[in-house]
Amino acid sequence: MSYTAVSVVAVVAALGLDVLVLRTRVVTRRVFWTSYAIVIFFQLLTNGWLTGRDIVTYAETAILGPRMVFAPVEDLLFGFSLVVQTTAWWVWWGRRLRPSRVEP
Q1: Residue 20 has what DSSP assignment?
Q2: What is the rounded CA–CA span in Å between residue 56 and residue 13?
Q3: Which long-range contacts (CB under 8 A, 24 or more apart) does 27-36 make?
Q4: Across all residues in the chain, what is the average pLDDT?
Q5: Fewer CB under 10 Å: which end of the chain, C or N?
Q6: Which residues pair with 72 in a beta bridge?
Q7: pLDDT reported for residue 26
Q8: Are the C-beta atoms of 69 and 44 separated by less than 8 Å?
């Protein structure tokens, strides 16, 4: 399976987990997209440095071809899925681990 296919499956799975399974719906919140803009800036900075210096390389047959700051666009998809999943799980666990209210 190509990196492109894996990245697309990861995005679909992350969105399904967020919206349908955990029902946290983090991708519907403005605060998520604001935070993600910060994350993507540093992702592009790091990926650009790693791929621009050939520290990390990709087989041209495994990716679509278009790149942003030297990194294949699939890296953005895969990174997005990781951020969505991490945030969704964080919110889901946070809701369940809050201490219950104790009556005096």
Answers
A1: I
A2: 25
A3: 27/84, 32/87, 35/87, 36/80, 36/83
A4: 91
A5: C
A6: 67
A7: 97
A8: yes
Contacting residues for 62 by C-beta, under 8 A, at least 6 apart:
2, 3, 4
Q: Is residue 85 within 8 Å of 17, Cβ to Cβ?
A: yes
pLDDT tens, 71-82? Answer: 889 999 999 999
Q: Report residue 80 as tokens.
A: 């997005």
> What gap in Å lies between CA 26 and CA 85, rounded to an integer?
9
Which residue is associated with the tokens 């190509």?
2
Q: What average pLDDT does range 61-85 have in this prediction?
A: 90
Q: Which residue has the tokens 């983090």?
A: 26
- Is this structure's pTM higher than 0.85? no
